[in-house]
Amino acid sequence: MSSKASQTPLTNEQIVAQYKEMKQQQQAIITKLSEIESDASEYSLVISAIENLEPSRKCFRMVGGVLVERTVGEVLPSVKANRDGIKDVVKKLEEQLQQQTKELTNYATKYNIKFQPSS
């Protein structure tokens, strides 16, 4: 096949469909980012609640759907590690969101997409 076949101009419907798909991808990233930020906040609350407790104090933690008894000294490092891992994921999702937003803006500019104000 020639390269001309792959460069056929898109119809208005195809342009709109592609734009809507890109917008949905952006919204999915925003939703996931919100969920993960909420998880990070919960981890931070747990950390602030137990970090000043005696390390030998008994505490309970849910592991794989099972409630297990541990000590604060055993649980605190893993909870902090989990929170830090979540923060890394948040950072990556924020980068993806920036990239997706940039692509969406470029696409809208390229195809001269105009937005009508909602009533």
TrEMBL record:
SUPFAM superfamilies: Prefoldin (SSF46579). GO terms for molecular function: unfolded protein binding. Gene3D superfamilies: 1.10.287.370. InterPro entries: PFD2, PFD_beta-like, Prefoldin. The keyword Coiled coil applies. Keywords: Chaperone, Coiled coil. Pfam families: Prefoldin_2. GO terms for cellular component: prefoldin complex. GO terms for biological process: protein folding. Residues 83-110 form a coiled coil. Belongs to the prefoldin subunit beta family. This is Prefoldin beta-like domain containing protein. It comes from Cavenderia fasciculata. The gene is pfdn2.
